[in-house]
Amino acid sequence: MDAANPETDREIFSAVIAPHRSLSRRGFIIFMVAVGCVSFVTGLVFLSMGAWPVFGFFGLDVLLIFLAFRANYKAGRARELIRITETELLVRRVSARGAIAEWRYNPYWVRIDIGRDHDGDLTRVSLASHGKKLDIAEWLSAPEKADFLNALSAALATARRGLSR
Known about the structure:
By secondary structure, the chain is of the alpha+beta class. The chain has two domains: 6-20 and 78-164, Pleckstrin-homology domain (PH domain)/Phosphotyrosine-binding domain (PTB) (PH-domain like, Roll); 25-75. Helix content is 43%, strand content 27%. The chain has three helices and seven strands, in the order E-H-H-E-E-E-E-E-E-H. The chain has helices spanning 25-48, 52-75, 142-164; strands at residues 11-17, 79-85, 89-94, 100-105, 111-116, 122-129, 132-136. It has a four-stranded antiparallel β-sheet with strand order 1-2-3-4, with helices on one face. A three-stranded antiparallel β-sheet has the order 5-6-7, covered by helices on one side. Strand 2 (79-85) and strand 3 (89-94) form a beta hairpin. Helix 1 (25-48) packs antiparallel against helix 2. It is elongated, with a radius of gyration of 24 Å. The model has no long low-confidence stretch (mean pLDDT 90).
């Protein structure tokens, strides 16, 4: 094995974390059609009563809801990759716009810091090395963070055992 080339190292752990979006594309279309229909019918009622400007505001509401969901789905394209090999821990973030940032750590020297709330739930998972911290897995819920933390800790322990051989 070539210790100078992390690409040839055995992969111990790999995770891709993405923001959760609970509404599918089909659900979004159904929701927008329902909102549009309700707004149109309600707008027609106001139009028939002579309050014609209200009709336009209902249309504006539908447009703003559509734009808000569109921005939300666009932000949902972000990703975070965490990969551990025998000689490297890689964190790669891809923003919603496609910008890539990478951090590389030696698994032997990196440590995991956590934060908890007053109820004891996990709120933060950070990697720390050489005086710098990097928060990871921020999109996960507290139970998901706990599962992720256990898997990450086990993978780091495996990598450290491999390095100390």
